[in-house]
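Good morning C.,

I know you're traveling, so I'll keep this short. The sequence:
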Amino acid sequence: MSTYGLRQRSRTDLTIGVLATLNAIAALIGALGLMLGFLDLDATATSRLPSQSPVLGGIALSLVVGVPNAVVAWLALNRESDASPAAVIVGIILICWIVLELAVIRELSFFHPLYVAIGALMIWLGHRVDRQRHPELRRR
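The tokens, ready to paste straight into the viewer:
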């Protein structure tokens, strides 16, 4: 691998790490907001939650989105080789979470397309690192 490839990989790992860190923090804030009540859902959205419980929604958000993003952040910022496949998996999980959330609460917000785009970006970045590490995966 060339020096350029190593430098590029570091930037991509750093980008994955920063993005995953921001996602983990956002998920934690969102989860706390739901659990403590400072992120208020309207009555209709709350009634559609499992057990009509924002607390359970907050716990699910932290476990399904926050924890995996924190793991990816740690892997990427420590340049672990598992960071890129983990970023792809977390990107897929994030997109699935948004689809599930839309199916449950049936209300669209600005955050839904934003986080689908962030999930897609995580997938793309994870694949980019794999292509840099394994040149034979590049399309010719």
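Safe travels,
E.
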